[in-house]
């Protein structure tokens, strides 16, 4: 799957842009604050229907305008598909953040929901902030896991939403109900549902972690020339080991809730379940979050992202589109070389932003297209 063309109008700092893209490698070069990340965000927005950068998508409309328009033509299985996305402010109010945004998605001229896009088109983003997958709080790792799994397994997304809805009801009872006996009675209504959905999430995450572990381990060995072995393990607060038995997970979940009922009432929160889980990454046996250097952590994330490409390819039959924002400068020459070699060998359509063209040798330059970005305009090199 690859972009053939992109057009942007009044999007971020691009007033008007129209580009023909390379099916394999596209490099965006430019100084700081010229629009490199904006362009990557825009391309991703076209295939995802939402921004990976902001929740306030109104911000993507070029300042002073009432709407933005994004268009992409994508080739998938030898078919050209056109996606058009418009972001429009319902009214132009004094207070920008009070404006309602109307987002319209069209696939081949038919209005569609975001879910239709997500089913058809896949993308993997790797940006500097993703270092937090290793260093950050557990919530960020859960978010990473949930996003990755949802992308290849739509049922997971459905169950995840249901789980959080049930959890919300349950926490509400714990927070609001005063009568202790009533709390316990009411919890009993929600527990079976929480356990059922929650156990499914735990099991799926364990399987996913094991799978990505095998792939990431191999990539990581290659990138580090066999110097580093990584290992990922899922940490459930319900299970001792990474069990793949749904009946056992169910049972353990139920036991934990029963054992800690008093404590939950006292603390007024649901203390066990996948919403409190985490995963750890080890490099040569040491926890990467505590002992890994920034470069090592970055490389782990790269290995995870490359694994994600493979998992999507396995599921969909085609590689997703790969977006690499500002990550070249943080990898040493060997690692950069490996990465670019892999992208060109596998013919994954990739968009790379960089301040410096020197990170790409002449051989690579011949394999793709290089665009220079200056103040929201493209200068073809
Ligand atoms: N809605 C917007 N309208 C106009 N300009 C914007 C908008 N959003 C961001 N920008 C501009 O885009 C610039 C950042 O572009 P970005 O793509 O992040 O830079 P870089 O090339 O360093 O990746 C900011 O300096 C800002 O001026
Ligand atoms: Mg940037």
Tell me what you see in this structure.
With 381 residues, the protein is α/β, with parallel strands linked by helices. It has two domains: 182 residues, 3-Layer(aba) Sandwich (Rossmann fold); 162 residues, Glutathione S-transferase Yfyf (Class Pi), Chain A, domain 2. 46% of the residues lie in helices and 24% in strands. The chain contains twelve helices and 15 strands. β12, α11 and β13 form a beta-alpha-beta unit. α4 packs across α5 and α6 packs across α10. The model has no long low-confidence stretch (mean pLDDT 94). This is DNA replication and repair protein RecF. The RecF protein is involved in DNA metabolism; it is required for DNA replication and normal SOS inducibility. RecF binds preferentially to single-stranded, linear DNA. It also seems to bind ATP. GO terms for molecular function: ATP binding; single-stranded DNA binding.
What's this model, at a glance?
It contains 12 helices and 15 strands. By secondary structure, it is of the alpha/beta class.
How many separate helices?
12
Q: Name the beta content range.
A: 15-25%
Q: At the first level of CATH, what is the class of the largest domain?
A: Alpha Beta
Indicate how many domains the architecture comprises: 2
Annotated CATH topology of the largest domain: Rossmann fold
Number of distinct beta strands: 15
- Poorly predicted runs are none
User: By helix and strand content, what is the structural category?
Assistant: alpha/beta
Q: By CATH's scheme, which homologous superfamily of the largest domain applies?
A: P-loop containing nucleotide triphosphate hydrolases
| pLDDT averaged residue by residue | 94
* Each distinct ligand: adenosine-5'-diphosphate, magnesium ion
The CATH architecture term of the largest domain is 3-Layer(aba) Sandwich
Order of helices and strands: EEEHEEEEHEHHHHEHHEEHHEHEHEE
Widest β-sheet, arrangement of strands: 2-1-4-5-6-7
Q: From the structure provided, what is the oligomeric state, counting identical versus distinct chains?
A: single chain
Give the radius of gyration: 23 Å
Ends apart, CA distance between termini: 25 Å
Largest sheet: 6 strands, antiparallel
- Helix share bin: 40-55%
């Amino acid at each position: 799957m690859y972009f053939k063309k992109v057009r942007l109008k009044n999007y971020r700092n691009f007033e008007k842009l129209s580009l023909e893209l390379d099916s394999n490698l596209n490099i965006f070069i430019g100084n700081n604050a010229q629009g490199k990340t904006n362009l990557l965000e825009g391309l991703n927005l076209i295939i995802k229907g939402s921004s990976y950068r902001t929740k306030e998508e109104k911000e993507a409309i070029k300042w002073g305008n009432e709407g933005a328009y994004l268009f992409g033509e994508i080739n998938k299985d030898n078919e050209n598909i056109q996606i058009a996305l418009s972001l429009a402010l319902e009214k132009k109010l004094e207070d920008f953040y009070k404006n309602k945004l109307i987002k319209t998605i069209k696939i081949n001229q038919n209005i569609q929901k975001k879910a239709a896009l997500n089913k058809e088109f896949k993308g993997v983003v790797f940006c500097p902030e993703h270092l937090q997958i290793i260093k950050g709080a557990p919530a960020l790792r859960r978010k990473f896991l949930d996003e990755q799994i949802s992308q290849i397994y739509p049922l997971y997304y459905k169950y995840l939403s249901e789980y959080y809805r049930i959890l919300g009801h349950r926490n509400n009872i714990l927070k609001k109900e005063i009568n202790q006996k009533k709390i316990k009675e009411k919890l009993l209504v929600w527990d079976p549902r929480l356990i059922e959905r929650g156990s499914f999430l735990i099991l799926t995450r364990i399987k996913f972690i094991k799978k990505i572990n095998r792939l990431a381990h191999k990539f990581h060995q290659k990138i580090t020339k066999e110097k580093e072995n990584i290992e990922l393990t899922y940490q459930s607060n319900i299970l001792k080991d990474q069990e793949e038995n749904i009946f056992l997970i169910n049972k353990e979940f139920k036991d934990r809730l029963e054992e800690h009922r008093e404590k939950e009432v006292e603390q007024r929160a649901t203390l066990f379940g996948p919403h409190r889980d985490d995963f750890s990454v080890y490099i040569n046996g040491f926890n990467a979050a505590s002992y890994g250097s920034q470069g090592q952590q970055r490389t782990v994330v790269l290995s995870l992202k490359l694994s994600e490409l493979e998992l999507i390819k396995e599921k969909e039959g085609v590689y997703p589109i790969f977006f690499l924002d500002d990550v070249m400068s943080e990898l040493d020459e060997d690692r950069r070389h490996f990465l670019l070699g892999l992208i060109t060998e596998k013919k994954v359509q990739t968009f790379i932003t960089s301040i410096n063209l020197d990170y790409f040798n002449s051989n690579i330059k011949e394999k793709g297209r290089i665009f220079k970005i200056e103040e929201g305009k493209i200068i073809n090199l």
